[in-house]
Automatic annotation (TrEMBL):
Database matches in Pfam families: Aminotran_3
Species for this entry: Plantactinospora mayteni
Keyword flag Zinc: no
Stored CDD domains: OAT_like
Protein's recorded name: alanine--glyoxylate transaminase
EC number of this enzyme: 2.6.1.44
Family label: Belongs to the class-III pyridoxal-phosphate-dependent aminotransferase family.
Domain of life: Bacteria
UniProt keyword annotation of Mitochondrion present: no
An MF annotation (GO) of this entry: transaminase activity
Keywords tagged on the record: Aminotransferase, Pyridoxal phosphate, Transferase
Record note on quaternary structure: Homotetramer.
PANTHER family with a match to the protein in the record: ALANINE--GLYOXYLATE AMINOTRANSFERASE 2, MITOCHONDRIAL (PTHR45688:SF3), PTHR45688
Needed cofactors: pyridoxal 5'-phosphate
Amino acid sequence: MTTDELLARHRAVMPSWMPLYYAEPIEIVAGSGRRVTDAQGRSYLDFFGGVLTNMLGYDIAEVNEAVRRQLSTGVVHTSTLYLIRQQVELAEKIAALSGISDARVFFTNSGTEANEAALLVATNHRRSNQILAVRNSYHGRSYAAMGITGHRSWSASSLNPLQVSWLHSADRLRGLLSRLDPDEYVDAAVDDLREVLATQTSGDVACLIAEPIQGVGGFVAPPDGLFGAFKKVLDESGILLISDEVQTGWGRTGEHFWGYQAHGVTPDLLTFAKGIGNGFALAGVVGRAEVLNEVHAVSFSTFGGNPISTAAGNAVLDYLLEHDLQANAARVGAILLAGLRELADRHAIVGAVRGRGLMLGVEFVRPGTTEPDPAATARVFEECRRGGLLVGKGGLYGNVLRMGPPLTLTEEEAREALGILTEAVATAAA
């Protein structure tokens, strides 16, 4: 069966709102390390990693062996009505690494479900359905998670079970607070938080949920310390802080293991997903026992934290720590960031380069302006594929290339990717 035939079958049975990348979609049929191969035999350096999910890369022996060992028992699933050794062991590791005291861990299948669980316990704990969220954010595709997503492209409905009040995003290119230096930005954002609490809520707000770096929003990040400044205001009323670490967790930013650690604060709850499973469905929420225990009914996740996914998760986390991939993300990410900044200096269509570690974004604009240029972004995107590099897209206006390669990326591969991207931008700008 050809790729065109598969595409026709896809369109015949899948909903129209499921996007496919590229003018000529590809089927990935093999992978090794940081490279994948499509059905036509073409090899690519993968800089999007299944949307920042294949954190170690492809065909990792230690993960494969852990999954095979579990499969060899004949037990793929039991449900959490029974003890699951792999789940308990992984929960112990994550609780210890979370930075949250007296932590409890609840496993789910996806980041969306993790955020739903965090909202459930926060609203129960505070007996309130009022939520603070951030413009340009993304927290998932389910009903409540969509309601706290401040990104129009991903908000399929205005119907919402929650009462949401919105804080300013940290867009430094064209946001309302973009002209302020970092200290002034933090002060203005805190003033905005106080005003929102005073004018748009009845005071008994459940929580603030925020991404340390906005993923779908185009890798937009606030100044360091903002969450800490927010937490001082939130603590005055007992409002909880949820850090959405679905994309920023596990050392991806290089500087810290969790994104929240750049802000001198410990959240009440943090959600995780993506990289911890390295392709297996694994996610969850961590929180203080007094908060996470606030579910006054029988509840569990049928598949969340199943023996196969947690076997993989334990292997992934052990590999990550044993190989110090956080340090590798910092080192190799610095090479990429420097190269991308040089690229911005040479081409006026590059409006901004931002990110940390191996979480990097390039925003494209019409030369001489801050006006988004999604058409130029699409050209660069397609040229990267033609050159053998897979990247992602995002941003409020669809004009940001997103790069989240595996944390095992080598310096040589980083320079190879820069070469491909440099040619792609030059071609698009011509």
